[in-house]
Amino acid sequence: MKEVWQMLEALRGSIRGDEMPQMILLEAASKLGALPETKGWANDRWTSFQKDPAYPQLQAAAQTLLGLGKQDRLKALDGIFERGQWGVGSPWISREVSQQIAGLAVGTSSARCSFGSSLHPCLHLALLSEEQGIPLDLAFVDLTPEVCDLASLCAAVLEINLSVFLGLPFERLDGVQANTEIAFPHLGWKLQPGLELPKRTMNWMGATQTGRLTGEAIAIADQLAQAPQAQSIISLSTGVLFRAVGVEATAREELINSGRLHAVLDVPSGMTYHETGIQTGMLILSSESDTQDVIRVLDMSDPSLSTRTSRGRYEAKTDVSWKDIIFGPLNEIEFGRDVTIPEIEEQGRILTVSRYLGRTAAKLSIFNERYEVAELSHLVDLVRPVSLPKADDGDFIIHESAPGDIGDDGFLTEPPKVVTVNRGTLRKARNQQLEAGDVILSVKGTIGRVGIVPDTVPGRYKDEFWSAGQSMMILRPRRDQILPEVLYEYLSSDLMQEHLHNLASGAVIQSFNMQDLKSLPVPVPSKDEQNRVASAFRDRLDLHDEIQRIRGRITEHRAASWPHQDLGGL
Fold it and tell me: Same structural domain for residues 396 and 436?
C-alpha cells in the first residue's frame, strides 16, 4: 500500500489532489477490462492525461493497486482519499465508522445505500459479506454524477457487484426494496422548494412541497414511508434530534410513534466526517415487524468506544463491536442506557443523548435533596433580549454585554460594544436594561457563562445604560426568594456548568431550549445560609483585588527589566 501512495505522491505536480482518487480508479478499472460508463468530468480528464509525460507513473500505481487483495485495495483507497484533500465535499467517511456500520448490516441479503457518504460503508459491507459467503444484492443511489461515477469505479476495481443509480434517493425511482438501508443525507441540507417527492413520504410528514424541508428530516420520513421492511441506519446532524419546531420535530414524533427507533448514537465531531466539526448522530431503526418499547441511547465519545488522535480528532475503536452494544445487553455502563417512550415524551421528544445519560442530573438531584427546590422561573423574572434597531444619530447610548465581558470575579464589566438608538426604540431597550443585582447567563454559542451586574451600573433613567446581547438571558432574582450571589454560586459551580452544557443542543452553534431553562431545578437555602453565601462571595472579592494588585506589580517589574525598559522608550 505504501508503494501505491509513494507513486501517487510523485504525481502531485501533474494531478490535483481532489482528482487523484478517480484518476487511479479509472486507470485500474481499464486494466481490469471493467471500465464502467461514466457521466462526470473524470473520464475526459483521464483521457487527456494519457498524453502527459507522467502518465506511466499513473499506470504503475494502478498496477500496484491491483496487485493487492480486495481488502487491502479498499484500505489503499482510504489512504488515497485521506491524502487527496477532497475537503468538506468529500463523500468518503472514516474507515473505522465504515467498518462498524458494515458490521451492523452484515448478514442481510439485500442493502440499499443512499448518498455519497454511505459509499465507504457500502464497499465494506460488500467485501465483508463476500468473505463470509453471504450472497448480497447491493444498490447505491446518489443525485450527483461524479459520486455515482466514483461508486461504479470503486465497485469495478474491488470486483464487487454493485447496482448504481443516478437520482435523488428520496424519489425512489430505482425501485429497490432492500432488507437494510444505509442513508447518509448531506448535513444541514435544505431541499429546494417545488422538489417532487413521493406523496406517501410527504403525507407521512404532514408537510407540503412549499414549506421548509430539510434532507435529514425527509430521510427519516423516507425510511418510515418507503422502507417499512428494512433495518435502517441514518446519519444526521444533531439539530434534527432536538429542534422543537418544523419538519424535524414532526419527523421525530412520527419516528417515535412508529416504534421502529431502536437506538440513538451520539457521534462526536470528526469521528464520521473527518473534514467537519459538526456534531452528528446516528439512528438505528428496526423493521416495522420488530417494534420497540424502549430506545437505547449511546455516547460514542466514551473512552470505551473511541480514542483521540494526536490532532484531537475522535476515532472509533474497532476492537469494540457497535453491533454488540446496540443489540446486546448493556450491563452496568456509563455510556448508554435504555430509555422508555414515556420518558422521551416528557422531554418533548428530544433525542439528544446527553439528556438521558443523566450523570450530572443525578448528582445535582442528590445535592438538591438537602434543600427546598424551586424551578428557576419561580425564583427570577426571565428577560430575553431582542435585537434593537440601531440609529447612527440616536440620542441614547447602550453598552451591549457579551459573555466575554464577565470578569474573573463574577461581575459584569462595562461592555465595550456601544450602539445608539432613537427615542422610538427606547422603550424596547428599557425592557432589557440591566439593573444592579441582575444575573446574566449566556444561552447561545458560549454556553453557561454567568455573571452579576454590579452596583456601578447606570441607573434606570440615564441616557447611557447597559443592556444584554442576544446571546444572554437576564435572570432578575426575586429578592424575597433568592439572593443574586446564591444564584450565581449555584449556576457557576463546576457540576452545574457541565449540566448546562449537557442541556444545550446545536450542530454548530449551541443554544438552550428555553423551557429547559425555565424548569431548571434550583436549591433554595434558608435565609441565614443565603446571607452566609453572599458574605463569602463578597469576602472572595478581596482575594480577586489582591490578585489584580500582584498582576500590576508583575507588569511593572517586567517593564523595568531588559529588554522591555529600553524597547519601551523607542
Answer: yes
d(CA 569, CA 331) in angstroms, rounded, equals 69
494 and 542 housed in the same domain: no
Which region holds residue 236: left if phi is over 0, alpha if psi is between -120 and 50, else beta?
beta
Asked if residue 305 and residue 172 are part of one domain, the reply reads yes
The per-residue pLDDT for range 317-370, each reduced to its tens digit, is 999 999 999 999 988 777 899 999 998 988 888 898 887 886 677 678 788 889
Strands (E), 391-508: 396-401, 418-421, 439-442, 450-452, 464-468, 472-477
Can you read off the three cell numbers belonging to residue 350?
428530544
What is the Cα–Cα distance from 232 to 284, expressed in whole angstroms? Answer: 6
Question: Omega before 563 cis (within 30°)?
Answer: yes
Residue found under cell 440620542 = 395
Picking from 521, 501, 496, 498, the residue whose alpha carbon sits closest to that of residue 511 is 501
DSSP H/E element including 266: strand 261-267
Interatomic CA distance for residues 59 and 180, integer angstroms: 37
d(CA 351, CA 357): 11
Contact 449, 462 (CB under 8 A): no
Asked if residue 251 and residue 159 are part of one domain, the reply reads yes
CA 90 to chain CA centroid, nearest Å: 18
Q: For residue 152, which amino acid is it? A: S
C-alpha cell at 57: 507513473
- Residue 372 amino acid letter: E
76 belongs to a structural domain: no
Q: Outline where 273-352 has alpha helix (H).
A: 322-327, 341-346
What's the Cα-to-Cα distance from 535 to each of 133, 202, 340, 491, 522, rounded to whole Å? 74, 60, 45, 17, 20
Q: Are residues 133 and 190 in the same domain?
A: yes
Cell numbers that stand for 371 in this block: 434543600
Q: Quote the number of domains for the chain.
A: 3
CA atoms of 294 and 263, how far apart (whole Å): 9
Asked whether residue 410 falls in the same domain as residue 352, the answer is no
* pLDDT tens track for 291-317: 888 999 999 989 999 998 777 788 999
Say yes or no to pLDDT of 89 above 60: no
Radius of gyration of the chain (CA): 29
Mention every residue, 6+ apart, whose C-beta is less than 8 A from residue 417: 399, 400, 401, 402, 469
Which grid coordinates belong to 300?
460514542
Same-domain status, 155 and 302: yes
Pairing outcome for strands 439-442 and 472-477: antiparallel
Q: What range defines the domain where residue 257 resides?
A: 90-357
Contacts of 473 (CB under 8 A, 6+ apart): 382, 383, 384, 385, 440, 441, 442, 443, 512, 517
Q: What are phi and psi of 411, to 5 degrees?
A: -95, 145
Using CA atoms, how far residue 398 sits from 401, 438, 465, 475, in Å, is: 9, 17, 5, 19
- Nearest in space to 169 (alpha carbons), one of 153, 154, 189: 189
CB 503 within 8 A of CB 513: yes
